[in-house]
Amino acid sequence: MDMKTIAGIEVRPGERRYGEIPVTTMAAGHRIHIPVHVIRGVEEGPVVGVVAVQHGHEFSVINIQKQLLEQLDPSQLRGAVVCVPIINAVAFEWASRGGWSDGLWGPHGDIGRLWPGNPQGWLAEKIAHVFSTQVLPDIDVLFDFHGDAPHTRFTDHYIGYGAVDGELGERTANIGRIFGMEIVLRRPLGGTNTLSGYAMSQGKPAFGVELGDFWGLDVERAPDGSGKRKPLTEVGVRGITNVLKHLDMVEGEPELPAYQVEVGGFASVAPAHGGLMIPEVTRKDIGRIFPRDHVLGRIISPYTFEELDILQAPYEENLLVAVRDAEPFTHMQPGGGDLGFSVVDWSSATWTIGNPSNV
Asked: Model's pTM, two decimal places?
């Protein structure tokens, strides 16, 4: 085995390399690129891709790649690991969901809805196109990390994948469980405008990993609802390592949780009126089950302080998977574009590891 190009980077067996894939040059002269780390093992094997920061304010998950790169030993690796810490550098510059230039001049800057991109399109579309054509083709299994957003105090916790039939569907479902998060969200496969949706359309198991600190499922908690904190970096690094073990890229057995549940019926809970949102659940409540109409948050007017809206759980039983919990309140716009909370229909739950009813 000699020099090989993986995800646009030339790398030899047993070597780690960093490179930058050019996208375009801005009017002021600075260049936009996609940063790529490649660790190539001494033996051939699959290529696992780990990417982050499609949304520039979700930068907490970069630490997962930093620690993963520090821990992986290429002499003990089969195949390769590709890490892209920041896909959308322009959005990251402003710690915002989208890029400022597309927001000012283009239709919008949310790269997360523009895959596989367009070489003649706006900046976010150009970035997506370069990744789709120069990085993604060499990746066999893709993990798209989204994380805790400190600027908006928004966090969620689950691994999600699109359900498909056949061998690809079976492989994807199996890898999603092996990753080892307690909450696995199985959704109908939607369109290809998301990165994971597009990757699946190309025959690659692909996952959206939503990570914040986690205090456990209800079944893991004390009677008063308290749980033990599981830091997002630890969860993410262990998850990728589990997959590498499962794919026989590194030695060892995956470290799986005592309980894991697969769920569907995802719903976003957003306000009909904008204003200031006062949360009544926090990130420590992610993983807990709440009854129908449980109050998740309230919207008040910033002018009169009257209550304008109540955000309530929609299902008979609701597994909380995402919250926006800034205190004493956070700025909210009306409608689904400004997410307050996310829940999953608990009636869809299937225990894949452990089953409290059998204990």
From this structure: 0.94
